[in-house]
Amino acid sequence: MTILMLFIRRSICVAALLAVASPPLSAAEPIQLADVLRVWRKRESAARTLRFDLVREYVRAKGTLTGINEEQGTVTTLPESFKSDQRVVLVIDGVKMRYERIGDTWAPGIEAPAPETMIAVFDGARQKIVHERQQSDDRMFSQGWVRSEKRHPDAANVHLSPIIRHFRPTSPVFGVIGIDRLQVERQDEMVDGLRCVILKEALPDGLRARKYWVAPDREMGIVRYVGYFQDQVETEAEVAFKRDPKLGWVPDRWRVASFVDGALVTSATTQVASEQLNLAVAAATFDFTFPVGTQVNDRIAKRQYLVKPGRTNRVVLPIERTRGATYSELMQTNPGEAGRRAAGGEGFGYMSIVIIALLLLAGGIVLTLLKRSSLFPFSPR
């Protein structure tokens, strides 16, 4: 009897210690959506400007699509896995944004890796983008675009999402999270030892959905994100945070992966090299000059041109695009002259058309005269 009593007492003590050491997660106070949004909005209003310098290791899987030739009805795919070490700069001022990426990219024109500097800016009303390449010939050259849009083209870039969703989560201009569509799906989910609440966002198309694992101990930072297409994982991101004495909890390192039909397509690991908040940002940050040799498609001015030495713009006429004029021809000729050889001697072609038209006209006149004369007695009246 004494042994039994000792065993019961010991069991009670052990159970009590376990209860203190490992309290059930359900005992924590539930996190409401309003609690999350309040912290997000506070951080967003406090971070007027920001700059992040990043180091990224980007990997693209073998067999992924690299190009489509609509005229020939063919596609090209990556012959082998491609890896690129990239340096990235992200600057945000309110809704304005500048994104730079420097590193090798896969160039369909030469079917090989090639160095590239990509710069994309948004000044609040206009997008301006350049893909600057070191090579300038018919196979590969620098390209640029100017467009009137409502946000930066990379506002929803999954590789930048840990920063943008942390500092601009409720912005309608960035539009990275549909605040009105968020619902609390689950409480007390653990991710790397952090208690999280899962928020779910069902997209209007009815095919896609997003889930966010939000950690109260990281100032409502999103430590995990998964995007679904028809219930299959399309993108996912795992984010590690660090505590900055001045900035609070900020994203420090993340891994992003994208999938098609369950197969891995791309993956990238990004490390923050430096971060600044509320720094002075010049207006010129959200503009740049297209480098010499760039072919620019300006959709605002509704024209296409090439930047020639001396910063003069060589306009590309629609007829030259129709002729299939090459980059080299455009760079070496005046507007309207490129592509004539590709059109099979276009000068002769136009002259032939003119001659044929004149002959047909003359023939018609002669036929009319003959019908009215006795030389053509069987003509109808």
Could you give a quick summary of the protein structure above?
This protein is α+β, with helices and mostly antiparallel strands. The chain has 6 helices and 18 strands.
Major beta-sheet overview: 16 strands, mixed
Backbone shape: elongated
- Beta strand %: 35-45%
Alpha carbon gyration radius: 32 Å
User: Could you estimate the helical fraction of the residues in percent?
Assistant: 10-25%
Spell the H/E element sequence. HHEEEEEEEEHEEEEEEEEEEHHH
Distance between the termini: 136 Å
Indicate the mean pLDDT. 85
Query: What is the number of strand segments?
Result: 18
Task: Give the strand order, joined by hyphens, for the main sheet.
Answer: 9-10-11-12-13-14-15-1-4-5-6-7-8-16-17-18
- The oligomeric state of the chains shown is single chain
Characterize the structure shown.
By secondary structure, this protein is an alpha+beta fold. The chain contains six helices and 18 strands. A 16-stranded mixed beta sheet has the order 9-10-11-12-13-14-15-1-4-5-6-7-8-16-17-18. Strand 16 and strand 17 form a beta hairpin. The longest helix is centred in the last third of the chain and has 26 residues, at 346-371. It is elongated, with a radius of gyration of 32 Å. The chain starts with a helix and ends in a 10-residue tail after the last helix.
SSE map:
Layout: H1 2-21, H2 33-46, E1 49-60, E2 65-69, E3 74-77, E4 82-93, E5 96-107, E6 112-122, E7 126-133, E8 143-148, H3 161-167, E9 182-191, E10 194-202, E11 208-215, E12 221-229, E13 232-244, E14 248-260, E15 263-277, E16 295-298, E17 303-308, E18 312-316, H4 318-323, H5 327-332, H6 346-371
